[in-house]
Amino acid sequence: MTRPDAEIRLLSCADASAYRDIRLEGLRQNPEAFASTFEDERDRPLDWFGERIAQSQIFGAVLARGLVGVVGLRPHADAKQRHKAMIWGMYVRREARQYGIGKRLVDAAVAYASGHVEQLQLAVVTENEAARRLYAKAGFIEYGHQVNALKHGGRYYDDILMVKFLGP
Q: What is the C-alpha separation between 84 and 75, in angstroms, rounded?
């Protein structure tokens, strides 16, 4: 099988419908990996997803069949934390995994952030070994462990906190 050549680009409000679809798929397929839930977001209006795109930098991986991966980048708003940003909402559709799309999405977010902030932070569920390896290969280091960070279906999930220093 040949490696698909995804276009990695910032999403715009015009992508709200495609973003809604992939976001809801991620929440449904991997509920343990996100702070939000499918139930919280499924009935939100399309404008709500457009607002999320407008308030963050959300990178998308696009193939001929549409949006196959996303990752968000959100700078902190508070004056004392403006030197930091959060990576959030990472998801790659199952059929597009193993092609390096996740790496390309993270690389795009890091490249964008490099001109705007000094460090990137993220949280990843401890059981998500593939994501932890991806972030480690991208230069993120573990700096903390949040016990019972999320609770879904009566089960608790711990988060590993990771950071990548980009420099002043």
A: 6
Distance CA 71, CA 23 (A): 10
Strand partners, 87: 73
Predicted TM-score of the model (pTM): 0.92
Closest CA to 32 of 121, 131, 108: 131
Where is 124: in which H helix or E strand?
Answer: strand 119-125
3-class state of residue 122 by DSSP: strand
Contact yes or no for 74/85 (Cβ under 8 A) = yes
Q: Write out the two tokens for 99.
A: 């092609």
Q: Tell me which amino acid residue 40 is.
A: D
Phi and psi (nearest 5°) for 32?
-70, -15
Torsion over CA: 132, 134, 137, 143 (sign): negative
pLDDT in tens, the chain (168 residues): 456 688 999 999 999 999 999 999 999 999 999 999 999 999 999 999 999 999 999 999 999 889 999 999 999 999 999 999 999 999 999 999 988 999 999 999 999 999 899 999 999 999 999 999 999 999 999 999 999 999 998 999 999 999 999 987
